[in-house]
Specification:
Oligomer: homodimer
Number of domains of chain A: 2
CATH superfamily of the largest domain in chain A: Zn peptidases
CATH topology of the largest domain in chain A: Aminopeptidase
Number of helices of chain A: 9
Order of helices and strands of chain A: HHEEEEEHEHEEEEHEEEEEHEHEHEEH
Strand order of the largest sheet of chain A: 1-2-6-3-7-18-8-17
Number of strands of chain A: 19
């Protein structure tokens, strides 16, 4: 397949269009990673490393601080919305315009045009963000070469509508099982009903009051919810098992262990016979009090917002690097057929970052 | 396939063995229906009708009362337990020994050996009892030729361990749905959780106190149970629908409409957004106060028991014919690989019926 030429001298909007037209659905990022690597190796002020289809480039100026700018290069499956289309209002339409080739375009523009930043820079381009967590390229780099991701502060250029989103909440998924004894439903008293035994679990969930703690000035919002319930053997059998799957989204002032202990405590007296941790990813503190973050906030302006969903900032957080989301796309249109981005916002985002890194 | 010869001059135990060896899994009853029809047509005191693989024979002596003796001729799938085997203790092993070829043997023996009963007799042999209700041969006859089933009292020779089981409870299955609004579980407050909304339903079920009414001297035992619960969209989505399937087993002093009204009332204030009747079969009163039934009880002896599960006696009840279960098999072994019957009990059952019909 013929791919567009990445020309880093184009403005960020035009470069976004090239990146969108350069198809790179999850699992099919090699050609784009090759092209990005080639362009970055042509820049004398950067050293470039590659691991799989993940490309990491950095300046080595011996500055007091190092900042990481990161973005994933894959997209969700294309839905008849490539090649991109620029309309008369300066809106660029197509798969990945928001999530997140506009952010990748900003990364590439900063890499190409800021050879002497006031902070050392690390650019991370990674694959497979839109699929399972165990395929995530940033996770692979963090495991194989954590030193490549070292820094004082990281910005993920994920769509955040040009606002700074700090940290992220953790997510814990637990299976709560209740037990009973099977019997024919015509003689129910010979058995014991596991679905009825789940009544206290649902009552506890319905009555739960989530916390809304303020951390670094950001108000988080926890949530404890059943996301699935399953029980039943046949239409005439008293069921001997019922499983409630509960998802706890918790603010980053709780550690993973604290979150787990909290959920155990909430359901301690609800007749749970089995408690299985199905999935768990810790949160990330916003880290906005770090000097690099404070300078960043001053440069980009606006009021930071908390990030409720789990994002890759937590991977940086786990490496000891405070991180935020800040990107030109609008997350509302991510993964949609009518995905689009206002090109002026891409340029604005690039200017704000350049101002922060050169002032 | 070669089939055994049905010889109605054999004793009831030996005839049961022949019937067991005459394979007739549900849907494959034609050969057995043919053989039964042939044997009955050879008896001059009976008139015989056939509808599908259902055979109905009757005496026409102008007696004051008419009694129906009914049994199904199909079995569940054979599980390496045919041909039958008679052990040294007089126990006959094999598929259908209990449920209910021993009962069919008793019907055939009475048909062959009681040409001048004190009550007119109707013998019903029907197919497809062990499968879906809409295939049940007794149901087909009831619909096409209800006059064939007319009578003052009916005995189904289903396995009841030689005890009289009166009437049967009704069964009503209802789907109770709750609704919510989907949202990402990281922003649960943007949606509304349909599983949490089911909490009052489960609480009501867990607290429900079933009635145990005494009818015609028999103590029934109702039950209201969840037999299935389902809800959930994905591990990170607040679910917008949850369905609790409830099975109400009710005593035969309630009509179907009363049972339905009761269930509606129980869950009236539980946030149910949709109430769907999935399945409903009314109960049957034991009818033990009817003179024919009283004489029957006196002849067979023992203490009648209530029937908790739904059985074909309800089909007779719907036609205005009081009915009971009374058969030589032990229901505990029905549908099992080690199904068996004590041959002495078959003979005993035959003698009790003959005594009632000739005294």
């Amino acid at each position: 397949m013929d791919h567009p030429v990445l020309d880093l001298s184009l403005d960020a909007g035009a470069l976004t269009a090239r990146l969108v037209d350069f198809r790179s659905e999850s699992g099919d990022e090699k050609a784009l990673a090759d092209a990005i690597e080639r362009e970055l190796r042509a820049l004398a002020h950067l050293t470039v490393d590659r691991y799989g289809n993940n490309v990491v480039a950095r300046t080595n100026l011996g500055r007091a601080e190092r900042v990481v700018l990161a973005g994933h290069i894959d997209t969700v499956p294309i839905a008849d919305n490539v090649p991109s289309r620029l309309d008369e209002d300066g809106v660029l339409w197509g798969c990945g315009t928001s999530d997140m080739k506009s952010g990748v375009a900003v990364q590439l523009r900063i890499a190409a045009t800021v050879p002497e930043p006031n902070r050392d820079l690390t650019f991370v381009f990674y694959d497979n963000e839109e699929v399972a967590a165990d395929r995530n390229g940033l996770g692979h780099v963090a495991k194989a070469h954590p030193e490549w991701l070292a820094g004082d502060f990281a910005v993920l250029l994920e769509p955040s509508d040009g606002q700074v989103e700090g940290g992220c909440q953790g997510t814990l998924r637990v299976l709560l099982r209740t037990s009973g004894e099977r019997a024919h439903s015509a003689r129910a008293w010979m058995g014991s009903n596991a679905i009825h035994a789940a009544a206290p679990i649902l009552a506890r969930l319905a009555a739960y009051e989530p916390r809304r703690p303020v951390i670094d000035g950001l108000e988080y919002h926890e949530g404890l919810n059943a996301v699935r319930i399953e029980g039943g053997v046949a239409g005439n059998v008293i069921p001997d098992e019922c499983t409630v799957t509960v998802n706890f989204r918790y603010a980053p002032d709780r550690t993973g262990n604290e979150a787990l202990a909290h959920v155990r405590e909430v359901f301690a007296d609800c007749g749970v016979t089995e408690f299985v941790v199905d999935d768990h990813s810790g949160g990330a503190l916003p880290g906005l009090s770090h000097p690099a973050a404070a300078a960043f906030m001053e440069a980009v302006g606006g009021t930071p917002r908390p990030k409720f969903g789990w994002t890759d900032v937590a991977r940086f957080s786990a490496l000891g690097v405070p991180a935020v989301n800040y990107g030109p796309g609008d997350p509302i249109y991510a993964h949609k057929r009518d995905e689009h981005v206002v090109t002026e916002r891409i340029t604005h985002c690039e200017e704000r970052l350049r101002s922060w890194l050169t002032s």
